[in-house]
Backbone:
């Protein structure tokens, strides 16, 4: 479904231009762009801006701290509890790069925007967007579904975040598939660029432990706007 909110439409087009939507969702957006002149023009502006932005980026040697972070993300330095998250390490890096590209595009085109955003994707080679996160300047978080999902009645979808690796993941509560959720700043806590968010499939009522125990459904990192 194409959103009615003007700002959500802008972000949806940005995601589409960057190739973050696939399958039926991508086909739906493509039809919309073909039928809606204003949306089509905005899509062309995104593409033109991205081409121009790419031309302005000079070659650069990655700093040492980036290599250290790559080592951490790919599992060369990881506490025991992170083993369940390691299978999507390569995807995390790609996702973060795509989201940075979204930020480069969104900046010149949007009016006042959320402080942070994240696109949660299903892990794997053919990753697909499933949820979008926006964090307001007041710190409130909105979780918006991009796909429909159905799971067994004896299972629950749980929302997690990881901001400090040494402290481990922290639950933000249960999520009802296909429905938006707003979490107040008092529960979200401080959000930083690169902060990890994920949805996992857990036993009914949530994980029996203070960390994810079930498979990862969707995962992504926050990007500062």
Residues:
């Amino acid at each position: 479904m194409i959103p009615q909110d003007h700002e959500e439409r802008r972000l949806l087009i940005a995601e589409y231009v960057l190739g973050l939507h696939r399958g039926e969702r991508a086909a739906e957006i493509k039809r919309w762009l073909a039928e809606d002149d204003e949306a089509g023009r905005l899509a062309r502006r995104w593409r033109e801006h991205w081409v121009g932005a790419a031309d302005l980026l000079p070659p650069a040697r990655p700093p040492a701290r980036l290599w250290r972070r790559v080592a951490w993300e790919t599992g060369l330095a990881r506490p025991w509890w992170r083993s369940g998250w390691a299978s999507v390490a390569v995807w995390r890096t790609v996702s973060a790069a795509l989201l940075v590209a979204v930020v480069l595009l969104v900046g010149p085109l949007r009016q006042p925007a959320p402080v942070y955003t994240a696109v949660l994707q299903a892990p794997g080679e053919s990753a697909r967007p499933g949820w979008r996160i926006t964090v307001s300047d007041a710190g409130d978080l909105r979780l918006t579904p991009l796909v429909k999902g159905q799971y067994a009645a004896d299972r629950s979808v749980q929302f997690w975040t990881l901001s400090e690796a040494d402290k481990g993941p922290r639950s933000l509560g249960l999520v009802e598939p296909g429905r938006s959720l707003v979490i107040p700043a008092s529960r979200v806590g401080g959000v930083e660029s690169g902060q990890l968010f994920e949805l996992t499939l857990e036993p009914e009522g949530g994980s029996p432990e203070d960390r994810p125990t079930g498979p990862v459904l969707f995962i992504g990192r926050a990007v500062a706007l």
Observations:
- The helical segments are 6-17, 23-35, 37-55, 64-73, 89-109, 185-188.
- Residues 89-109 form the longest helix (21 residues).
- The chain has one domain: 6-224.
